[in-house]
Amino acid sequence: RLCPSLVAFTVDEPVIDFESGDREITVSVKVSDDKAGIDQFRVYLASPTGQQLVQFVYGAEEESVTFVLPDHFSNGEYSMQLYVRDLAGNDVTYLSGYTGTRVFRCFRGV
User: Fold this and answer.
1) How far apart are CA 32 and CA 16, in angstroms?
2) CB-based contacts of 40: which residues, under 8 Å, 6+ apart?
3) What global pTM score does this model have?
4) Which residue among 31, 41, 57, 109 sits deepest, i.e. has the most Cβ atoms within 10 Å of its Cβ?
5) E strands along the chain, which residues?
6) Whole-angstrom Cα distance, residue 53 to residue 65?
């Protein structure tokens, strides 16, 4: 296997109620790389209008990150993206709705 792999990706609350003041989304990620080890991963959250938040995690294979949505973020279906890079420079990006994840691209490090 060339690129890091996604082991688990879960969203604690897939429905956020802006009316109740609920603005937090926690995402749990577990990634693996059996050759070089994980350098970093980033979780991106994008609103339906393209506004984006990002959380960075360095040197860990498993972590939970919490996004706090600002008041100006819109209602609708949000999308997520996970970028993972190993210590050899290989990276992969996963795209996700709340229904599943698929590999989008994989690049070999130099």
Assistant:
1) 29
2) 56, 57, 58, 59, 84, 85
3) 0.82
4) 41
5) 5-11, 24-32, 38-46, 52-58, 62-68, 79-86, 91-97, 100-107
6) 11
